[in-house]
Amino acid sequence: MKSFSPSDMKGILYSKRANIYYLEHCRVVVNGGRVEYLTSSGKQSCYWNIPVANTSVILLGTGTSITQAAVRELTRAGVPIGFCGGNGTPLYSASDHELPVLWFQPQSEYRPTEYVQAWLRFWFDEEQRLAVARFFQRKRLDQIGICWTRQRFGDAFRCCENDLQQLVANGKDAVARAASFSDLFLVEARFSKQLYGLACRMTDYGPFTRVKRGMGLDRANRFLDHGNYLAYGLAATAAWVLGIPHAFAVMHGKTRRGGLVFDVADLIKDAVIMPEAFLGAMRGDSEQEFRKACIDVLTRTEALDFMLDTLKEAARSEGVLA
């Protein structure tokens, strides 16, 4: 039988890769040419295969280790690796203090150059960068309107469709009027506060205050943190695939290192993660059940596809800078 390596299997488009892994209390190793994670149960050890050619990103949580050979094979398949805390939320002192996950990107210079070159053509001009930031906000609002009412979040989110569409329309008007980045950040903050209120009303969640890194707080805050970090993983993957460095953000660059990851994750966080977080909290889901539901809805809504298409459209300035 002819043998092959992960580098031979990169024909699967990143946007079509089906798997996002969060692992804890295990070892990631290479066994018989396959990347596997090893768990222990008493005196027995169980090996579980990781299909690297069909994997978007891997998060390694509490009690994990990974071998050099496993890192080599994941890198060949272009899979970003993130080290994080339990459920992906606590920070480590060794990581970037503005990022929830310490990311190790696959080291490859053989990525497309056309997107980063196109990106840099507008990035150094503040007016053009502001135009792209507005474009990102419009795409984010469009996605909220689509996902909350047409996807898998049930009757609770469809019953207030008129209120949602009015909120989205008002948000678009405010984005169009934003004359500076400060104005745009203010618009984003006001819209998010209103959207949280609408989500609470749709799910009968009750009083809610958003507190980031909300370990030990209410379940919705914990789920929002947890789900958002999955979105950060997809965003980091999208930027790496297109060869655009994380430093070239359009909104978060002045306040956060690696800001492009936050910009891209914002495209789908409110549309996909927020409703799932409140629904999961009301259902009483465990962290594992919520994570599974999040990964499922990220796949169903083709979130990585949407991120890649938006980045490409912005890089090419197709109707963005007009």
Alpha carbon gap, first and last residue: 56 Å
Number of DSSP-assigned strands: 8
Write down the overall mean pLDDT.
82
Described by strand count, sense and barrel closure, the largest sheet is: 4 strands, mixed
How much helix, percentage-wise, in residues? Answer: 40-55%
User: Which strand-content bin applies to the residues?
Assistant: 5-15%
Topology order in helix (H) and strand (E) letters: EEEEEEHEEHHHHHHHHH
Given the helix and strand composition, which structural class is it? alpha/beta
What does the radius of gyration come to? 20 Å
Tally of helical runs = 10
Shape: globular
Low-confidence stretches: 90-99
Main-sheet strand order equals: 1-5-7-8
What is the gist of this entry?
By secondary structure, this protein is α/β, with parallel strands linked by helices.
Characterization of the model:
The chain is α/β, with parallel strands linked by helices and 322 residues long. The strands form two sheets. Strands 1-5-7-8 form a four-stranded mixed β-sheet, covered by helices on one side. It has a four-stranded mixed β-sheet with strand order 4-3-2-6. The model is unreliable at 90-99 (pLDDT under 50). The chain has helices at residues 68-76, 114-123, 126-150, 155-158, 161-177, 181-203, 219-242, 259-283, 287-300, 303-316; strands at residues 19-23, 26-31, 34-41, 44-49, 55-60, 64-66, 81-83, 102-104.
List keywords for this structure.
322 residues; alpha/beta; four-stranded mixed beta sheet; 10 helices; 8 strands; 51% helix; 12% strand; globular
